[in-house]
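Shipment paperwork, digital attachment
Item: protein structure file
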Amino acid sequence: MTRTVLLALLSQATLSMAYAQSRDTDTITSRTHHLEGVTVVETLKHRTVASTAPQHVLDQDRMAACGVTDLADALHRIPGITLRDYGGAGGMKTVSVRGFGAQHTGVCYDGVMLSECQSGQIDVARYSLDNVDYVSLVIGDNDDIFIPAKNASAAAMLNISSLPVPRSGTRPRLTSQVRLGSFGYVCPFVRYEQPVGERLAFSVTGEYTYAENNYPFTLRNVTLVTRERRTNSRMNSGHGEVGVAWRPGRHDRLTAKLYYYDNDRQLPGQVRYYTSVSQERLRDRNFFGQLQYRTVWSHAFSMRADAKFNWAASEYRDGTYKGGVNDADYWQREAYAAVCLLYAPDRHWAVDYSADYSFNNLNSSLATDTKPFRHTVLQSLTAKYRTRRVTLLARVLGSLYYNDARLGASARNFSKLSPSVSVSVRPLAAHDLHLRASYKNIFRVPTFNESYFFHYGSTDLSPESTDQYNIGVTWNGAPWRQAEATMTLDGYLNHVRDKIVAVPYNMFVWTNINVGKVEMKGLDATLSFTQHFCRRHSVVLSGSYSYQQVENKTTRESPYYGYQIAYVPLHSGSASVGYRGPWVDVVVHGTGASLRYGNNEHYQGTDIPGYWEWGLAVSRQFSLGKSKLDLRIDLKNLFDRQYEIVRMYPMPGRSWQATLKYVL
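Attachment content:
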């Protein structure tokens, strides 16, 4: 462990010194991001307030002001999100929005959807916050209509935007960072950016994470209370990215990204009384390459084309079974292409037509493997009308899913038209106050796990069909001198028919059941307030709250009618207060959720108590000539609160992290 830390520190110092000796002595200018001939006038804050459907955005500055520590923590600050977290640096983390389930939440990385055809759940723990420019959640339809049809095919969309490739004409930049923390955690990170000539630029990013994850927890068995430690929790994870941006013409832009991720980890398993035996291991690997090309043909016509190839493999080993009878390997592939055509004849109207095609297949080492595959064709037609006071958006999505299997019976084919409409009205021209309402119908086909796999799937499963209704009010303004405030309040009513609920057995295996009908009623609220004092002194307050009543409405005769769906809290929220000054930034923050149940039947002893976790972040930035040095200390779970997010998977208690970041 000591050797790993020393190597990380030495590599950071060596890279920084070598670059400092070779770089140009001219001043590094601030980076700006623009498209040739296009002026960007809409800020991320205005996008949140003026959108026709709920949209929440956290950029780098906002995350720093709120004391966000990692991507999972960032998602805890967004209302409506239920994050399933198995604990520790190596624990899987999946996102559910407004009780829909993780499969209804699409995840976009730099504008292109991530794929997971096996379980349909994206593990967001794979993506490093150190390489993220901003994170946004769109519930319903995106006001940006110039998107592939696949990006409109989910009930909610989580968008992760990585740090952009530098604009041509800027100077090279090197960022090196190392983060150390409790329970054997060490994470070196490096990013290099280099323009090449006037039209080409690239960036290279690398990160490695090692953690023992052997954190202590309290085990209670009636009156017997013991202090235990998580075992079999070690992880070794690394990922690398290469980004390229090329402008072949004044109105053309081509971007490319290569991504590779490799995580070899132990799985600690559920906590059981009087035993901690676990010999499970999981290795996940993922590679994808994606291209995006944009061009402007005239003042009215624009075109966007996307292409992607994705490969993923998982290798599961269970040493408690002799002969490896419980071992399993899975391999999945996706080939994807999309074309979008945008027609904007004037400043009020815009129409987009998008068509996508993707091919997915999944193979495994199981004797029961049927080698399923799927062809998907999606088409969307979207119209948007916008004035200074009104924004109206309407879309229809056509979905075709062709299923087959090489060695057995296949799931059924599915097709459907899914309409949606949303509107935002600014009733008072002098105030940034907006009223919005939206409706979206969408459906989700069963994943390959749900349809095919032994003991867990059924080819007769029906797709989930959803209806989303939302009404809300947003406001942004200055309540008094040197103050800024933003508020959003949204109420919603959702219906799901033939809902498939995934209840975890362990971190890798899920049991899928069909609930039938589910009704969601809820409320999401956010508040952001900044008070500026004298020069470079300010106080930032931020908070979010969610009320989610997600109930089984299948049959009134059932004893479980009206029960809250597993793992969805009735109340959840976050809060932070921070001071930003010339010497130090300090943030106190907290996240929490009310009681939840580990199953849909609410059996005695399966309830998961509510919790509220507090943290503290202290940071300082130093200017070293033309370079910057950032120091940050994070204290997590300040009061050492014992809690669980997934039943029988305890979360870490009090812990710390220290980050040293050097930018040349």
